[in-house]
């Protein structure tokens, strides 16, 4: 009789392989979908019930309209056991009782293939050039700024290619400047000049609440092929939902952070912070917040620094920085209105564009006497500081005496310093004028200014 063969067993798999197999099995399981119902739709706000315990502020929901169309919602608050949400699209077709499933947090995966593309705040292409190739890992659209104590310091000078800025508001890598202007004084043209000429690796441009008619004009005429080739443009026009206009600003920061984390020098330009705050005001009022300063609820001035602080240097030792230029629309030329005042207190400097200068035909219409860079001292040599101080003094004196000279009330020779200001200030103003296709370097700009101030001719 043959002896029974002993049963053979395979040796157990190593622990790492068993964990990997378990993780693969978990990923293959169908995801649990939690679905609530719309309880009410009032104005811009939607109330959702049934899934409140599984939601937090900022989470996304996907509601199904009567015609089967899906509408994305975002939770903005909670009241009386219901989640309050706002739509990122058209509310038409939504009503009580319609389903709304949980969709998670806002994320998208940025890649280098996004350069040269125009996208919406949800990461969808707007330029008709096909889908956007995703990057290796999705990132949160609304992220926290880097810890203040772990951030790198500002880097060396970033040449902007615009003489008025390189001379009087020198910018360092990682600095954040505000561009304060009324409508129609050339800020879009100035932004396009910077996108084409600034010494950066990547430009990220956010058009928040822009007129739909002007988007193509800006991209094709002002920015041009050369500027677009190294840029990512994020667009939410004025007719977009408030959440989309707000999301455009955060999406642009997320794109800029991706390139910064890869060690690149990024130039971020946002037009405009004011329209971002107007979108926040609509959201806050719809959520039931009380209006405070000029109708802005308190959440606007809590959200604004969280956005602006995301720009700047990256973590120490990681390389890369986001140099940012945020435009601020000053209502009625009031530079002390709430948004302008709050932004000026957060940013590292401000550039003022004046209608009076634009009407006189000098572009870019930068008022160098009212503009300031808080980081300029770290850029300038002693002789450059003296040069700029003298130029500012001459421009200020000429501005003060301009009416008297024009009316003939000042007699030449009465004051040598006034005579010098009358002679040299127009030459300085001519130096500050620059065509949109003209570029320059800081070294050439300082040399030209020194030549003007050292001239002794009439």
Folded structure, characterized:
- The protein is built from twelve helices and 17 strands.
- The strands form three sheets. Strands 8, 10, 11, 12, 13, 14, 15, 16 and 17 form a nine-stranded mixed β-sheet that branches.
- 40% of the residues are buried.
- The protein has helices at residues 15-28, 163-168, 187-197, 212-229, 242-261, 273-286, 298-308, 338-346, 355-359, 382-407, 416-432, 442-454, and strands at residues 35-42, 45-49, 60-64, 70-79, 82-87, 99-104, 107-108, 117-119, 139-140, 176-181, 202-210, 231-237, 265-271, 312-313, 321-329, 349-352, 372-373.
- Helices cover 36% and strands 20% of the residues.
- A hairpin with a 7-residue loop joins strand 14 and strand 15 (321-329).
- With 458 residues, it is an alpha/beta fold.
- The model has no long low-confidence stretch (mean pLDDT 91).
- Keywords: ATP-binding, Cell projection, Cilium, Cytoplasm, Flagellum, Nucleotide-binding, Protein transport, Translocase, Transport.
- One of its GO terms (cellular component) is cytoplasm.
- It is found in: Cytoplasm.
- It catalyses: ATP + H2O + cellular proteinSide 1 = ADP + phosphate + cellular proteinSide 2.
Helix-and-strand structural type = alpha/beta
Number of strands: 17
Report the major sheet.
9 strands, mixed
Percent range for β-strand residues? 15-25%
Q: Helix segment count?
A: 12
Overall pLDDT, averaged?
91
> What percentage of residues falls in helices of 4 or more residues?
25-40%
N-to-C SSE series?
HEEEEEEEEEHEHEHEHEHHEEHEHEHHH
Low-confidence spans: pLDDT under 50, at least 5 residues? none
What characteristic shape results from the CA principal axes?
elongated
Oligomer: single chain
How far is it from the N-terminal to the C-terminal residue, by CA? Answer: 127 Å
Radius of gyration, whole Å: 28 Å
